[in-house]
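Lab notebook, design round three. We kept the backbone fixed and only want residue identities now. Task for the bench partner: fill in a sequence for the structure below.
Input structure tokens:
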């Protein structure tokens, strides 16, 4: 499979998607004190076909039933990824308020375009022990993140990734994209945005390299083999003590998938999560991936549909395979762009090159 990254190597390489963050991060935050949480909003102006796949044992979600392919609503207008555990779902109210003000949502009155109901599914990570337990995302967080959404967005310790902890080291927000090469899906873009907050390990204790470098190799990410001293220091870190964790995110494509195709993409994308986190989908995680299809690709739009199937299965196969690679890369990106917060060491500090 051709694995060339898109222009930004991010979710917004899929035309029609925007990403925004809002968070609080006290410079003096320590475990149990100071603000360290936030939310991230993926906007799809005009709507996008969507689905979801939940694999973890302890999920915290909102509006996921509406995404069942058997149900009536076919599009969403935003996806909320948030900290604050179940409390953080309150941020969705602010996202809905912002969308309603823009007239974005399911039309409810043909005579009044302002009467809409925005569809905003969401998922949470458990970050309450990082920083002050009583500070968690509110409706105002969601409103500001929706208003902030654009093609360019930050990664690492931002938005929903501010309080994320990936095993023994700092987690965060990561993203990646692929433009598919020769084949039925040539020219189609597939991308992922991930909030990495697992209980499992994100690096190999034998080498110090992120598990997620397995497909592309460490050189793709600009990584060298850590020294024995660095490896010993990383392996000496205490394991994550929280019983509630979770990695959440969005995979997306500009291919014209229907809800069933989106669901299959979300399911396959979890393979990338399992490659980059060990163990994945544990009873202590609520691993949840949303899938979006904007149908904006002119390349995919020219593909004839086979008569016996609802969509081109070869195109779907390529898109699903790419989605897993994007998730794998995005988790590595989250780890590499994170910085030390509240005493939780970042990978870049543990394995800094000599002289850095």
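Proposed sequence:
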């Amino acid at each position: 499979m051709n694995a060339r990254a898109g222009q930004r190597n991010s979710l917004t390489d899929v035309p029609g998607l925007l990403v925004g963050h809002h968070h609080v991060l006290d410079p003096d935050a320590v475990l149990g004190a100071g603000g360290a949480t936030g939310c991230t909003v993926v906007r799809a102006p005009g709507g996008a076909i969507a689905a979801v796949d939940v694999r973890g044992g302890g999920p915290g979600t909102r509006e996921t039933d509406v995404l069942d392919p058997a149900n009536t609503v076919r599009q969403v207008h935003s996806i909320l990824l948030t900290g604050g555990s179940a409390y953080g779902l309150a941020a969705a109210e602010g996202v809905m308020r912002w969308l309603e003000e823009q007239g974005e949502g399911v039309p409810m009155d043909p005579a009044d375009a302002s009467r809409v109901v925005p569809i905003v599914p969401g998922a949470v990570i458990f970050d309450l022990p990082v920083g002050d337990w009583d500070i968690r995302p509110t409706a105002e967080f969601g409103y500001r993140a929706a208003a902030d959404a654009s093609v360019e967005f930050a990664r690492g310790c931002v938005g929903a990734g501010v309080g994320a902890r990936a095993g023994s080291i700092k987690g965060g927000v990561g993203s990646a994209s692929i433009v598919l090469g020769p084949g039925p899906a040539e020219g189609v873009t597939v991308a992922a945005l991930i909030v990495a907050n697992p209980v499992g390990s994100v690096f190999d204790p034998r080498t110090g390299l992120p598990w997620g470098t397995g497909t592309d190799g460490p050189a793709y990410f600009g990584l060298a083999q850590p020294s024995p001293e660095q490896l010993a220091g990383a392996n000496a870190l205490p394991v994550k003590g929280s019983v509630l964790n979770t990695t959440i995110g969005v995979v997306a494509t500009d291919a014209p998938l229907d809800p069933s195709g989106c669901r299959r993409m979300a399911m396959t994308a979890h393979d990338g999560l399992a490659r980059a986190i060990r163990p994945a989908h544990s009873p202590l995680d609520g691993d949840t991936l949303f899938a979006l299809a904007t149908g904006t690709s002119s390349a995919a739009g020219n593909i004839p549909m086979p008569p016996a199937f609802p969509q081109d299965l070869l195109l779907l196969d390529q898109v699903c395979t790419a989605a897993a690679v994007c998730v794998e890369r995005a988790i590595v990106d989250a780890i590499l762009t994170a910085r030390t917060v509240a005493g939780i060491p970042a990978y870049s500090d543990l394995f800094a090159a000599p002289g850095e």
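Keep this in mind before ordering anything: The mean pLDDT is 91.
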